[in-house]
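Tip: read the tokens left to right.
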């Protein structure tokens, strides 16, 4: 028997609200269900409720918000089996992945609870008054971070839990003291609903204002447009495509009151395999690369789509090892029909391009994708822009370079990335030292001798990077630093003692 049968409604101001029309979900397996289509009117109601909740929620103690985040985690765990059931049906991801992702999601909520309890995120600074300073006295200044207001969250298709309804963006915003209006992803509306049910239960058990969280299901692009242009929304967290993110970013910038749009978009995550590392372990790196490239059907934003290696026998070994490992993978189910179609189109573009040579080409049908592998040169790569664009799925491109100088030239040619990787041994030290500062200019995270899939949720993590990896290079969407997106520094000057209370004290 099904663990969970969705009712298909939106959650607004603490109430489940039906819509006038519905759309059917498109699960990878299991039954489809009908969901209420969102509308600008419903978005406006959710934003009104969020704005009404803001003052009271922003004024809650850090301890109260921490308890709220922990209650959400507990309510999600209480629905564990049902979450996994609907999540696997909708996404086609395996049960073990959904279970692991649930742990990551509740772990993030608990991490933010601990983070705000400590209070460091407020970044409080005090400049003591210097009344006798000449030629003019100095006032007392107290600076701290305050919540920005209601936040819109667009969940990711590829992380139905950890980057979606109560995922990293929502946890960071709620921790900061900001109400959240989630635009449900149409790829997993039922998973969104059961998580919203958990948040609703946590709101009720901890006595939080009802408007502090809303879920508006999609089914119509007007929902996202209305949400980012609603004057009550003060910031947006988004994970998705470059095209969708850019469209919404532009809407945010064009508002009478522009607001920050924190979009985590696409990336090809180049790996630079330096000569000594290639000589020592080309096969191991090739096999490991294939594993990272096909993990989750290649549907990770940190998927390393490009390997740069010096031409020669070590490059041949790396390519042969990668090809052999990719041949064993076979077709995998993609998250949505649309993502599977986009993958096929990306592979078709590569197949038609004169700038690449095929190493492994496969046919992908329906909602499946099989790995593809190509090779190219530095000049071809730098002259054909689309080779540097992400193909979301298990598609790899090897760029063979002739020299260290050419590797450096190529590194300088990349656009902004979420990650860049160095495979390096002691014999590569000089070249690695040349590349490291270049890659640090290009990416939010630079890693050595590993693969970028698997993003640790931690204090020192950065999941972001220069455009087009993200729309705001000063921010991260993973880790405790992500709370800064939803805070604003305010300086309080010469406040009388009776106003120095709460977090200001
Ligand atoms: P998407 O098509 O950009 O959709 C993301 C969300 O934005 C959905 O809720 C979608 O609504 C909405 N949306 C997109 N375009 C819109 C527009 N013009 N107006 C209003 N709303 C709009 O991305 P996706 O298909 O979910 O994910 C696949 C892509 O995301 C991949 O290409 C990958 O590059 C990228 N991605 C990036 C990361 C990262 O961390 N950087 C992670 C995962 C995926 P609907 O639900 O109505 O479609």
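Filled-in amino acids:
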């Amino acid at each position: 028997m099904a663990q969970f049968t969705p009712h298909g409604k939106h959650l607004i101001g603490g109430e489940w609200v039906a819509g006038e029309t519905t759309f059917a979900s498109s699960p990878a397996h299991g039954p489809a269900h009908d969901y209420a289509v969102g509308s600008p009117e419903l978005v406006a109601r959710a934003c009104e409720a969020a704005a009404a909740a803001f003052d009271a929620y922003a004024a809650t103690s850090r301890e109260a918000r921490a308890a709220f985040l922990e209650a959400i985690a507990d309510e999600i765990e209480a629905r564990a089996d049902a979450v996994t059931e609907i999540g696997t049906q909708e996404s086609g991801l395996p049960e073990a992945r959904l279970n692991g992702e649930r742990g990551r999601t509740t772990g993030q909520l608990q991490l933010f609870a601990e983070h705000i309890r400590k209070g460091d995120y407020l970044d409080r600074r005090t400049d003591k008054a210097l009344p006798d300073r000449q030629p003019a006295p100095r006032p007392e200044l107290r600076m701290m971070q305050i919540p920005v207001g209601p936040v819109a969250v667009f969940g990711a298709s590829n992380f139905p839990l950890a980057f979606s309804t109560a995922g990293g963006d929502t946890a960071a915003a709620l921790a900061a003291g900001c109400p959240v209006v989630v635009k449900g992803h149409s790829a997993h509306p039922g998973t969104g609903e059961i998580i919203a049910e958990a948040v609703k239960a946590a709101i009720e058990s901890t006595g939080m204002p009802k408007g502090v969280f809303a879920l508006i299901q999609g089914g119509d692009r007007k929902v996202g447009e209305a949400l980012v242009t609603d004057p009550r929304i003060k910031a947006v967290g988004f994970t998705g495509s470059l095209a969708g993110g850019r469209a919404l970013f532009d809407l945010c910038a064009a508002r009478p009151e522009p607001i920050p749009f924190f979009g985590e978009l696409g990336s090809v995550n180049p790996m630079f395999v330096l000569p000594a590392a290639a000589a020592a372990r080309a096969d191991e790196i090739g096999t490991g690369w294939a594993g990272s490239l096909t993990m989750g059907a290649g549907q990770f934003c940190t998927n390393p789509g490009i390997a740069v290696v010096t031409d020669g026998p070590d490059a041949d070994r790396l390519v042969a090892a990668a090809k052999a490992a990719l041949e064993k993978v076979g077709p995998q189910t993609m998250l949505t029909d649309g993502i599977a179609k986009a993958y096929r189109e990306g592979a078709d573009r590569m197949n038609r391009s004169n700038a690449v040579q095929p190493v492994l080409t496969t046919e992908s049908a329906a909602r499946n994708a099989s790995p593809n592998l190509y090779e190219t040169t530095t000049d071809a790569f730098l002259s054909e822009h689309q080779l540097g664009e992400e193909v979301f799925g298990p598609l790899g491109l090897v760029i063979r370079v002739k020299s260290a100088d050419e590797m450096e030239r190529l590194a300088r040619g990349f656009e902004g990335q979420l990650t860049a990787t160095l495979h390096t041994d002691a014999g590569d030290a000089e070249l690695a030292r040349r590349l490291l500062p270049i890659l640090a200019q290009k990416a939010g995270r630079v890693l050595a001798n590993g693969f970028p899939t698997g993003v640790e949720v931690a204090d020192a993590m950065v999941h972001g990077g220069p455009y087009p990896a993200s729309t705001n290079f000063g921010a991260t969407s993973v880790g405790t630093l992500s709370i800064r997106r939803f805070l604003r520094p305010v300086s309080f000057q010469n406040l009388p003692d009776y106003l120095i209370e709460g977090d200001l004290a």
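The mean pLDDT is 97. The radius of gyration is 24 Å.
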